[in-house]
Amino acid sequence: MSTLRMKIARRIDEAEGIRSYELVSADGAPLPPFTAGAHIDVHLGPGLVRQYSLCNAPHEQHRYVIGVLREPESRGGSVALHERFAEGAELEVGAPRNQFALHEGRHFSVLFAGGIGITPLLAMAEHLHKEGLPFALHYSVRSPQRAAFRRRLEEAPFAASVHLHVASEGTGVDVAAVLAQCPPGTHLYVCGPAGYIGHVLETARGLGWGDDRLHREYFGAVPEAPAEGEQPFDVRIASTGATYTVPPGRSVVQVLQEQGVDVPVSCEQGICGTCLTRVLEGIPEHRDLYQTEEEQAANDHFTPCCSRAKSPLLVLDL
Q: How many Å apart are CA 48 and CA 269, to the nearest integer?
């Protein structure tokens, strides 16, 4: 996949452990446009590619802005950005992709952000305000020091639509109460830790909200399933008939790459969908957070970076 050569024009400490990076074209070339909810792949070194949501206004064409939480226990992406990339540094960035787009229409939108999950919802708020569409943004953080982009939100022309919830101050969000005030036809968007997303979605479903109005994007790693009880299984490449065994503790991607079978990967956590592969035979054991429950139930695609198999064999459209 082609990439863009970009330069860090500004690096700003936005909150405790969170920095924003303003990226501009290294050679002055125009940037591909993006829509609210989009992300970019940031190449931080050999084999180190991470996804970060764009948080600036989508109508801006001269820059991309991302927010990055430094996670010491992460797989190296956020630490690399925080420690190795200063203002003026150049890096490769993939063109924007959107798997968390706003639903078209003039309905009300309610946005729930948990922690660094504020980033894609910032772009959504900017777009909704520019288009004159009604919305409310509920931003939950553990402490005031963890509230990234707070000044920007307080000074935004849509500040009246923003509600900050601080757990340490006892002002956590009452999701059920918020949803009870939403007009009919409201669409819900949520981004944050898996537990936070699960709570918001379960509350909405419990109040009768249909999945067609519920939209989510995970930013954190998928909790790894315990290796205990994992069974080996085979994967067959449909185009060649070659069959390989995937042992416990190894991923399909790892096994295939060792055999010279190229599978495009990015997050390696089942979040981004880059490696989504068609399954022609067999039943996957889904461990991704990319597909909806309905898509997983179809069992015709899976993410080989983290998912496994319930059946002894998976035949893959590769």
A: 13
Give CA–CA dist 142/158, Å, rounded. Answer: 23
| Distance from the Cα of residue 39 to its chain's centroid | 7
d(C-alpha 48, C-alpha 33), whole Å: 24
Pick the CATH number of 233-316 from 3.30.300.70, 3.10.20.30, 3.90.1210.10, 1.10.357.10: 3.10.20.30
Q: What is the pLDDT along the chain (318 residues), one digit of tens a residue?
A: 578 999 999 999 999 999 999 999 999 888 999 999 999 999 988 778 888 999 999 999 999 999 999 876 665 678 888 888 899 999 999 999 998 999 999 999 999 999 999 999 999 999 999 999 999 999 999 899 999 999 999 999 999 999 999 988 888 899 999 999 999 999 999 999 888 898 999 999 999 999 999 999 887 544 444 456 688 999 999 999 999 999 988 999 999 988 999 888 776 777 777 788 999 999 999 988 778 778 899 999 999 998 999 999 999 999
